[in-house]
Amino acid sequence: MGLSATYRLYRTQDDDWICIAAVTDDDFRNLATILGVPEILDDDRFATATSRAEHRRQLETILEPRFRTKTAMFWTRTLDDAGVPNEGPGRHPGRRSAPVRLRQRRARSRRAVTRTRSW
After folding, report:
1. Which of 3, 10, 89, 93 is least surrounded, with the fewest CB atoms within 10 Å of its CB?
2. This prediction's pTM
3. What is the CATH code of the structural domain delimited by 2-89?
C-alpha cells in the first residue's frame, strides 16, 4: 500500500490509517526511534534508502505491528512532533474519512439506480 516501506499507508490500532513519508535518512532514524525499534538502524538491510527498498517486505513486517499499537491520531501527533512527514486523520477539518465517503458514494449510486429503473 505504497511506494516503499517508509512511504506508504499503515493501519493503526483504531482501524484508521496513517500515511508516512519518511524518505530521508534523518526521517527514517526518527521513525525507528519513535516506533521503538532503534535496533533496525544498525541493520545493514536498512542502512540506506536503496537497501531499505531491497528489503521492503522485511522492513514492513517490523513496522506494521508497531503502528497497530496506537491510534492514528496518536501517530500523527507524535510523528509531527518529530518532524517525520505523515498524513493522518484530522488534517482536513470537516472532511470525512475515505471509507465514509465511499459508503456515501455507493448509497447515492444505489438511490440513483433505483430512481431510474422503471419496473
Report:
1. 93
2. 0.72
3. 3.30.1540.10
- At 105, list the grid cell: 458514494
CA-to-CA dists, residue 88 to 63, 81, 111, angstroms:
16, 14, 31
Sorting pLDDT into bands at 50, 70 and 90, what band is 28? very high
pLDDT score recorded for residue 94: 46
Cα–Cα distance for residue pair 28/58, rounded to 1 Å = 15
The sheet that has 86-87: what strands, in order across it?
2-4, 7-11, 17-21, 86-87
Contacts of 22 (CB under 8 A, 6+ apart): 6, 7, 28, 30, 31, 84, 85
Q: Is the pLDDT of residue 17 over 80?
A: yes
List pLDDT tens digits, range 57-99: 999 999 999 999 999 999 999 999 999 999 987 654 444 455 5
Cα radius of gyration rounded to whole Å, the chain: 18
**Largest interatomic CA distance in the chain:** 68
- Look at the block and give the residue holding cell 490509517: 17
